[in-house]
Amino acid sequence: MGQVEEAKISCLNLLTCHRELLVSTLRSIQCLLDNLLASGFFCEEDVEIVQRTITKANQARKILELVQCKGEEACEYLIFVLYKVHDAYIDLQPWLKEINYKPSRDVGEMKVVNTDPSKCYRH
C-alpha cells in the first residue's frame, strides 16, 4: 500500500499549485461550505469566517486556506465536491480532467450534496 500512496499526487499540493485558477473560477461558494460543514471538515466558525469575506474571489481564497490547514483528506474532499457537483463547477471540469482526478476509496464514499441554487436552472 505504501507505493500506491507515494505515487498519488498530493491534493494539498494540487490546491497550492492551481490556487490562482481555483480562486478565479470558484463561484458556488455556498455549496462548498455546506458540504465541508456536513462532512465535519469545517465547523460553524469556519463557515462564518468565509461568509464575512466580501468578494467571491476572497471567499475562495479563504476556503482554500482553511481546507489546506485541515490536511490532505480535507483537500481531497474539496476536490471531490468539485468533481461530484458537476453542474455547479462546470468551469473546473477541464481542470479535473487535466489533473486526471480520480477519488480515493475513502473520499469516494463520502456524501456530497448539490446545494447550488443555480442547479434549478441548469440541465
Which whole number gives the mean pLDDT? 90
The secondary-structure element order is HHHHHHHHH
Radius of gyration: 14 Å
The count of helical stretches stands at 9
The major pleated sheet works out as:
none
What's the shape? globular
Strand-residue fraction? Answer: under 5%
Task: Classify the helix fraction into a percent range.
Answer: 55-70%
Poorly predicted regions are 1-7
Q: Return the structural class.
A: mainly alpha
Give the tally of β-strands.
Answer: 0
* Gap between N and C termini: 40 Å
InterPro entries: CARD, DEATH-like_dom_sf
Domain CARD: 13-82
Protein name: CARD domain-containing protein
Pfam family, one: CARD
Helix and strand topology:
Blueprint: H1 2-7, H2 11-17, H3 19-25, H4 29-38, H5 44-51, H6 56-70, H7 72-84, H8 93-98, H9 105-108
Helix pairs in contact: 3-6, 5-6, 6-7
Any overview of this molecule?
This protein has 123 residues and is mainly α. 62% of the residues lie in helices and 0% in strands. It contains 9 helices and no strands. Helix 3 (19-25) crosses helix 6, helix 5 packs antiparallel against helix 6 and helix 6 packs across helix 7 (72-84). The protein starts with a helix and ends in a 15-residue tail after the last helix. Residues 1-7 have low confidence and may be disordered. Pfam families: CARD. This is CARD domain-containing protein.
